[in-house]
């Protein structure tokens, strides 16, 4: 298992996101916005054998 990691300069964004099998994870701030040029660190975990699909708009 390799977590997805990005780096954060904005203390209000980032953290641990996890989902059950077949679950959906969305931005905790959705539908709100983050500050311009925000760098957030998220660790996404899913059950072993699961796939992760990331979509950015």
Automatic annotation (TrEMBL):
Q: Which residues form the CUB domain?
A: 13-57
InterPro entries the UniProt entry points to = CUB_dom (IPR000859), Sperma_CUB_dom_sf (IPR035914)
Q: Which UniProt keywords apply?
A: Disulfide bond, Repeat
Pfam families hit by this protein:
CUB
Judging by the UniProt lineage, the source's domain of life is Eukaryota
Q: What is the lineage of its organism?
A: Eukaryota, Metazoa, Chordata, Cephalochordata, Leptocardii
Q: What's the protein name?
A: CUB domain-containing protein
Q: List the disulfide bonds.
A: 13-40
On whether RNA-binding is a keyword of this UniProt record, the answer is no
């Amino acid at each position: 298992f390799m977590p997805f990691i990005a780096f954060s300069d904005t203390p209000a964004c980032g953290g641990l996101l996890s989902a059950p099998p077949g679950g959906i994870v969305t931005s905790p701030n959705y539908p709100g916005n983050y500050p311009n040029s925000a760098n957030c660190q998220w660790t996404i975990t899913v059950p072993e054998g699961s796939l992760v699909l990331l979509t950015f708009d």
